[in-house]
């Protein structure tokens, strides 16, 4: 159903008016409060529910199994302990060189400027990350610049999160201006789910900032299901593509959400129609609280095999896992234990 309010309301207003009460979300979706099994409220206290109303508007009413809803609704199973599901599955605290800098790979590093996200994805591998201790302050910039200049291999910075597009355009531009002063940098990657959950984030000012940067900007959005990509969302993202900004998508393979060949093929086609190239399909990072999204490796292998058989090669995202301490994401297809 089209709700034009979310097409007109500016993104800051939407960001300041998120749904944070699980019972309100159920009411909006015409679901009974007892759909929330005991434990889910506690789970939402540990990792707060955050859902933009524009995203809730894409969820099918009265369907507790809606693939978009399953990604955001707290679940009592999040409270279960599983030995191999831990708080820092990617060993990021080891890679945290100084506030805001996560340096894992040779040619690029992550700059985390905010711990805030527009949406809280229940499977997020950073759901336990101690952001508050790691955000750079204004005067940390000189140290960050010095750090880049000691690493001659670095030519790319990745703004990650939290979600960098929750920052104001002013703050984003300030950091982009700073990064532009470092001669060795050529590329700036922005990892964000905001364009999917609040499409109005792509406003004229943001387009202009990206378009006019000396750095080549690559926006990597995060969409897991074709239902997230309604016409309005696609048109907004496509307005960046029209300005020659490269837009890629990374998805996470999630039990109950997109674990079928049909769902993954629909996602790839929908992305492509919007000018977005499928980039990565991540298997779930084993983060504490997300075990119920996990899939058996043999099931993953079969799904991916079927995706390969059904899509042209250019629409098949790379199936990968991130392994703590590795120099790159690890390709997985054909591997039996992962
Ligand atoms: S938007 Fe990204 S960083 Fe934020 S909760 Fe979702 S997956 Fe995690």
From TrEMBL:
InterPro entries: Aldolase_TIM, EpmB, Lys_aminomutase/Glu_NH3_mut, rSAM, rSAM_sf. [4Fe-4S] cluster binds at residues 117, 121, 124. GO terms for molecular function: 4 iron, 4 sulfur cluster binding; isomerase activity; metal ion binding. It holds the Pfam family Radical_SAM. Keywords: 4Fe-4S, Iron, Iron-sulfur, Isomerase, Metal-binding, Pyridoxal phosphate, S-adenosyl-L-methionine. It catalyses: L-lysine = D-beta-lysine. The modification N6-(pyridoxal phosphate)lysine is found at residue 329. Its cofactor is pyridoxal 5'-phosphate; [4Fe-4S] cluster. Residues 103-326 form the Radical SAM core domain. Belongs to the radical SAM superfamily. KamA family. This is L-lysine 2,3-aminomutase. It comes from Acinetobacter equi. The lineage of its organism: Bacteria, Pseudomonadati, Pseudomonadota, Gammaproteobacteria, Moraxellales.
């Amino acid at each position: 159903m089209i709700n034009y309010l979310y097409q007109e309301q500016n993104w800051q207003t939407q960001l300041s008016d998120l749904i944070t009460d699980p019972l309100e979300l159920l009411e909006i979706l015409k679901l009974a409060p007892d759909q929330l099994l005991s434990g889910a409220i506690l789970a939402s206290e540990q990792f707060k529910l955050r859902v933009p109303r524009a995203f809730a508007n894409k969820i099918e009413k009265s369907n507790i199994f809606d693939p978009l809803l399953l990604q955001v609704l707290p679940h009592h199973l999040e409270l279960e302990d599983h030995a191999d599901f831990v708080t820092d599955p990617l060993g990021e605290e080891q890679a945290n060189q100084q506030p805001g800098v996560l340096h894992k790979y040779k040619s690029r590093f992550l700059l985390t400027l905010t711990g805030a996200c527009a949406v809280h994805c229940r499977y997020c591998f950073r759901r336990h990350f101690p952001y508050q201790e790691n955000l750079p302050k204004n005067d940390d910039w000189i140290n960050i610049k010095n750090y880049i200049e000691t690493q001659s291999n670095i030519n790319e910075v990745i703004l990650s999160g939290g979600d960098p597009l929750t920052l104001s355009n002013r703050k984003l531009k300030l950091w982009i201006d700073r990064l532009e002063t470092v001669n060795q940098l050529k590329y700036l990657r922005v990892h964000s789910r905001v364009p999917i959950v609040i499409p109005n984030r792509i406003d004229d000012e943001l387009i202009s900032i990206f378009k006019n940067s000396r750095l080549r900007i690559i926006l990597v959005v995060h969409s897991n299901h074709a239902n997230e990509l309604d016409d309005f969302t696609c048109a907004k993202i496509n307005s960046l593509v029209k300005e020659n900004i490269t837009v890629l998508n990374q998805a996470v393979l999630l039990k109950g959400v997109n674990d079928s060949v049909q769902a993954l093929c629909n996602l790839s086609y929908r992305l492509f129609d919007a000018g977005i190239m499928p980039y990565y399909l991540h298997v779930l990072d084993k983060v504490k609280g997300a075990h119920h999204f996990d899939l058996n490796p043999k099931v993953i292998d079969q799904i991916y095999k079927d995706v390969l058989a059904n899509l042209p090669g250019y629409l098949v995202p790379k199936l990968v896992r991130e392994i703590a301490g590795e120099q790159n994401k690890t390709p997985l297809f054909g591997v039996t234990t992962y």
